[in-house]
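The aim of this short unit is practical: by the end, you should be able to scan a pair of folded records and say something sensible about each. We start with the first protein, listed as its amino acid sequence and then its C-alpha cells.
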Amino acid sequence: MIKSSSRTAKSATQNLTRTWAASSPTTRARTVRSSPYPRTARKFQWVSRASTGSEWKQAWPSPSVYGKTCTTALWCMKSLRSCLATISTASAFQSIKNILKNTAPQKTLINANTNRAINITSYISTLQTIVEALGYHHITAMISLHTLDPTKSGGAWYDEDSGVSEDDFLEAVDILTKNLCDSKYWNILGLDLKNEPHECSGGGRAPDWQKGATLIGNRMLDGCPNWLAFVEGVNGIHSVTVSDGRTNEYYDWWRGALEEAGDDLIEYNVENKLVWAPHYYSTGVSPQWYLYAAGEWQESGIVQGYEELGDEELKANVDITMDVMFGYLMNKTLYAMVLGEFAGLYSKDAHPKLTTKRTTDYNIEGMVERGYAGGYMWSLNPESAYQYNPADTAGDFTEGLLEDDWLTPNKRFLEGMAAMDKIKDLRRFPCFPVELEEEDD
C-alpha cells in the first residue's frame, strides 16, 4: 500500500499475506492436507534465484522440478479460481501486537462452514493453516510485518505511542520463524520487514531504516536462514526531469524511496537474502505531476483542468521515475527487485485516456523490460479504497482483483496482470533441486 499526504486508508481490512499464484490445478481443495511430500523423501536443497542474486533455500522437497538449473521470477498467475477457497480467508491485520498476543481473529470475519480447514483458535494457528492451504494450491506467501497494532501502521519498526518497542518487534519475528520455518510451510518466501517505514531515514538519522532493515533481517535469518528479507524504501522529497524536459520536485510513494540505498548497502549474515521491494502507485492514490501534461494542483489534492499524457510520454515518465526512485539498483547491485505493491484502480479508471490504468500497465512493462523478478498487485480485496478518480474528483473509489462477492474474478484486472507472464524465466517455485550429501552418523 502507499499513501500521500491526503491519503486516509487504502483498505478497511489490511491483507494478512500477499501472494504469488503459481501454475496450479483448477480444482479446489476442501480441506487442508498435510504436506503432500513424504518426510522420508530424498533430501534436496532448493535454490530459487529471483532474477538476480537473491536465493531461497530449503532442505525439504517441494512440488515441482523444472530441470537442474533455472532462474525463477517471483510472479506467475495462471489460475485464480483454484486459489479462492483459501485466499478469501487471508485478510486480517498483520500486526506486531497480534503476533505477540497470539490474538485469534474475529470469528465473524471467517465463514467457518466453507473454510473448515482454517484453524482460528489463535493467531499463529490461523496463519499456519492459511499458509499450508496456499501451499496445497502451489501459491507462495510473503508475510508482511504490516502494522504495529491493528489500528496504527507505524512509520518505523517501533513506536512508543503504540506501545511497541524494538525488542517487541524482534520478538514477533522470533515467533514467526519458530512457528513457520518448517517443511509444512515450504511455500513461505520470507518477510516484508516493515510495511511503509515512511518516518525513517535512508541512513544517518534515527529511526535509521538501513540499520533497522539490517537488524530485522539478521534476526529473521537467525531463526530461518531459508527465508528472504524483502526491504521497502522510505520516503522523501527529490527532484526529477521527465521526458518533455520538465524538472520538478516529487514526493516519493510511501516506501518507494530507495534513492540512497545504493550508497550504504544492507549486508546480511547469510548471503543473497536481500530483495528490494519498493512501492509504486498510480493517480488513484495521488495525482503526481509527472503523470500529467498539465493542470492546476489544489491543496485538496485534486488537479483542476488536468491534461493527460500520450502513451509514449506517460510510459517514458513512469520508466524515468521508477529508475530514479529504485530501478537504478538493478545495475548497482545483484539483488532481486520486485514491486512490493503497485496497481490500485484499474478497470474502473474514469480518466478519458485511462491514465490510472495505463500507469499500472507501464509498471508491468518496466518490470519485464528491466528484469524485475515480479510484483505484488494491491489488492485482492474488493474494498481496497483510493481517493482520486479521475484526477479532478476526490472520493472513495474501490476495486480489487476480486469482485464484491469475494468469489468472482475481476476479469479486466486479471487480464492486465497477466502481462507479468512475460517476465523472463518464469517458473513454478521453487524451481530446481540440488541433492545434498547425507552426513555420516
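Turning to the second protein, read its sequence before its C-alpha cells, just as you did above.
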Amino acid sequence: LPLNGPPPGYGWEECGMSASASRSFRTGVHRRDGFFGQAAYCAICGHCMLEEYLGVIQLCYILKDLSPLAWNRLKDLNWISPQANDGPRHDPRNGLALCLNHRDSFENYDCIIRYFPENRKFVLINYSDDPDLQEFHGKAIALDINDRDAPYPSLFILHEMRVRGFQPEQPLDPAIPDNITWQDWILSGGLVNQDLDTFSHDPQSMPPIQST
C-alpha cells in the first residue's frame, strides 16, 4: 500500500469525513442506511424489512476478515482515520446494510462498489457480468459521503483489489456510463434531493403513499 495514504480523492480527510465515528458499528449502520425513520435499506436494491429478525436485511463488513493488526496498520498509513473505532468490527465505516442476495454478491467478490470523487457517489460495478446485477451496474447506490458515518472510500479500493484477484479473466476497465445516475429505486422513492444530492432520514419528509 502507498505509505502516505490512499490515492488522491479517496482519503478520509479529502472527503470531509470526521476523525471518529459517531456510534458503534450496529447502531451507526442502522442510522446511516435507514431512511424516513425506518429500518435499514439494502444499499444496492433498496429492499427494506422492518422485521429485521427475519434476516432479510443484514449488516456486513466491507473487509470481512480484516484483522485488528491490519486495521491498525491502515490507521498508521492514514488509509483510515487514526481515531477510527478499535477494530474493524466496531466501526460503522467498515459496514454496509445489504439484502441476502447482494451480501452474497459482495462477499463472494462478484461486484465492486467504487467511490467516484468527482461525483461524490458510490457506484455499483457488475465486475463478474452477473445477469442479476446488471440492472444496478454503473449507478450510484444509497450511501452518502456527507454522512458522519459514511464508509471509508479507501476500504472499497482494497475490496476491489480482492475482486480483481478472484476474477482475473474480467476486463481491467469495465464499461461505466459517463453520466452517473442514482439507482432507479432511489429516485422513484424520493430518497434523495436531486438539487442538493442529499439523502433524507427524516420521517416527516417521507413522500406520500400513492393510492392504487
